[in-house]
Amino acid sequence: MIFYLQKQYHLTNSTGANVLFLWGALSNFTPIFGAFASDSYLGRFRVIAIGTIVTVFVSPKKKLNPQFVNSTMILTIENAPLFLSTTSSVFPSARPNPCQQLTPDTKHCDSPEPAQLFLLFASFALMAVGAGGIRPCSLAFGADQFSDPADPNNERTLQTFFSWYYASVGVSVIVSALAIVAIQDRFGWIVGFGVPVVLMILSAVLFLIGSPVYVRVPGDSTLLTGFGRVVAGAWRNRGMAAPTRDSDRWIRRQGSKLVRPTDKLRFLNKACMIPNPSEAQPKDPNTLCTVQQVEELKSLIKVLPIWSTTIIIAVTVSQHSFPALQANSMDRRFIGEFKLPPASYGVFGILTLTLWVALYDRVVVPVLAGRPFNRPTGISNKYRMGIGLLISCLATAVAGAVEHRRRNLAFRQGIADDPAAIVGMSANWLILQYCLTGLGEAFNIIGQIEFYYSQFPENMRSIAMALVSLGLGVGNLAGSLIVSVVNEATKRGGGGRVSWVGNNLNRGHYDYYYWLLSVLSVGNFFYYLLCSWAYGSDDRKLWDEAEVAGGDGGGGEGREMETVV
């Protein structure tokens, strides 16, 4: 995509990278809204189904029923901007005129007009809106088909599902990076954007065919209001003494197995107590909330510090634009005279991720399950997240070293002032940093998915999945901010100083940029160690007991309240 922005819209390296960073950020922010809508109102199946139908059949040119739009459109247009992208490829007026070669060394390129940029950014925005409806629900919906808290092997089953789900996503990215890119190079952008439309139609048909056999978890309309009620109740009762944990003054939802709150974040416990112990029922039950609601909010608050540690690795994982530009300036012969497209080198990261998932699930976990380790679920989620952070530090350090060598060679070969020249260095040197990035992602991102899923109750599983996307979104935003700050800070002072991330890779210092990310990653790793220590042990047992029929949720009776929902 960075080459499309450069060649078709004449954007600079830093501007194009920032556009993609911001698009990635928006695409990863919107799933949090889709997750709340899914878990609170529509349910996961309905959001995915409506999203799929609208994606396939709704074009921006069609007139839509307003009621239909208001209730579902905001969640569901995943690939509608493919129509816009195809439009920008078919009609020359939708993009700037081609650059004019004035002399062998100079050319003139028109800047894009506001209307052209509007069409481009509208396509990005609609993709982000659509991602908000499908990304948080697809993984959680798949897990619903396998999850059974009564099964002693449930955690291992879900672990296998999460790993292979992410591996399947990796395979799709590999196909996209190789096949779709090759189609775009050979047949042009029109066919290149049209193929995903056909694939989306096929996926929609396959998804809807299986609808009769799906397990469907309905939305819980009390989720969002419950969060607000917990905060209001805790504040209202802040001056009262909290009862002991064995007291019967705790309010629990009718039929719930959670009868008393946990000791963590105890200031919220006052929201689910009966203020006056002499009352069999409170005068206004709707001002109180249940133990279940308190623990739901606690589960979200407790993971936020650990979630914040995933922002920096999201920055490193989203480094696609600059390595592609590096590959474009290097010898891309892979086997014999066969040359890989610059954007296809990212496939090695996804391939590493996919291979590690298979190796971990089929070899590492069985080994750890036996003696002397006796760990049936393998490496713990938090350990895997930490390992992924360490590997990401190494990945950016290697990226800086490779770029340092490429830049030095450009100067030694006398081509530093020609950004289009090919440096006499194999682009295969980039493979190592991609592999390390993919391995770090396999440890950290999949560890995140399993960690969040295990810490949240069933009615918050879409939110758990959305936290991963939200971390990636903030990471993209942070990446854009870092690029902008580096670009502005390193070109100040006059005297012909060139930005580290300038248009000419040879005159810039992309190696320093990578090493800056490496330093940030090391600091982030130590911050993660602190957050992990503060979090303590996982709380999987809490929700297992609450969800398994017959569980006691920790003992005690409490008072059931049908009106408190």
TrEMBL record:
Family of the protein in this entry: Belongs to the major facilitator superfamily. Proton-dependent oligopeptide transporter (POT/PTR) (TC 2.A.17) family.
Entry membrane topology: Multi-pass membrane protein
Species per Swiss-Prot/TrEMBL record: Linum tenue
Keywords: Membrane, Transmembrane, Transmembrane helix
Transmembrane segments: 20-37, 117-143, 163-183, 190-215, 343-363, 383-402, 463-486, 512-535
Name the UniProt record assigns to this protein: Uncharacterized protein
UniProt-listed Pfam families: PTR2
InterPro entries in UniProt: MFS_trans_sf (IPR036259), POT_fam (IPR000109)
GO MF terms held by the record: transmembrane transporter activity
Record carries keyword Amino-acid biosynthesis: no
Cellular localisation: Membrane
Gene3D superfamilies listed in its UniProt record: MFS general substrate transporter like domains (1.20.1250.20)
GO cellular component: membrane
